[in-house]
From TrEMBL:
Catalytic activity, reaction form: 6-carboxy-5,6,7,8-tetrahydropterin + H(+) = 7-carboxy-7-carbaguanine + NH4(+)
Keyword Transmembrane belongs to the record: no
Binding site for S-adenosyl-L-methionine: 43-45, 78
Residues binding [4Fe-4S] cluster: 37, 41, 44
Protein name: 7-carboxy-7-deazaguanine synthase
Length: 218
């Protein structure tokens, strides 16, 4: 394999928007969306990233990120870690001085990710349809710099996630986010459940969707 091929990634899009979730919510952020995902969560809102995309050299990705002139970069998908060269991209972004986050499904080993990256790791609930794909050993690799996210589809999902948080003391490892699946649950219900249980998690909604809805590239 040539060096050029070895340093390429298949991308669906690169765009600048407001980060809508997790600890960096509200910051102008460049999103690098890699193509492909081995999971099929029933609530997925980026199924357009499953296939297609274009091959980009790492240098070209770095140049496009720099063109937008912002400090925060989020590498997402799809499932970005499904492409092995994602690890090299994350390292290059960190070396360039960006604040880098990675949105990953939790179904792939995160141990090789540069420790400067804030790894936002999903824990798939039963309602996702992919609960069996969780790599529980990833939890042992988390630091306070990382983040966990549960997307809650219904009351059963909430109760399942609540017990996972409590039994594994996840809030002692890093920030834990609970997000309502926007087509399946009233956010007020989730907020009330969290408050009733005094659960040590943070609730979030997708800021970008509240502003722009499902507009592509936003």
């Amino acid at each position: 394999m040539s060096t050029a091929v070895a340093e390429r990634l298949r991308l669906t899009e690169i765009f600048c928007s407001l980060q809508g979730e997790a600890r960096d919510a509200g910051w102008p952020t460049v999103f690098v969306r890699l193509t492909g995902c081995p999971l099929r969560c029933q609530y997925c809102d980026t199924a357009y990233a499953f296939h297609g995309g274009d091959w980009w050299e790492l240098d070209a990705i770095l140049a496009e990120v720099a063109r937008h002139g912002v400090r925060h970069v989020c590498v997402t998908g799809g499932e970005p870690l499904a492409q092995k060269r994602c690890i090299a991209l994350l390292q290059r972004l960190c070396e360039a001085g960006y604040e880098v986050s990675l949105e990953t499904s939790g179904a792939i080993d995160i141990s090789e990710v540069d420790p400067r990256v804030s790894r936002v790791v999903d824990i798939k609930t039963p309602g996702s349809g992919e609960v069996q794909r969780n790599r529980w050993d990833n939890l042992d690799r988390l630091t306070a710099h990382d983040q966990l996210k549960f997307v809650i589809c219904d009351r059963a999902d909430y109760e399942w996630a609540r017990e996972v948080v409590r039994e594994r003391a996840l809030h002692e490892k890093c920030v834990v986010w609970f997000s309502p699946s926007h087509t399946q649950i009233d956010p007020r219900e989730l907020a009330d459940w969290i408050l009733a249980d005094r659960l040590p998690v943070r609730m979030q909604m997708q800021l970008h969707k509240l502003i722009w809805g499902d507009e592509p590239g936003r």
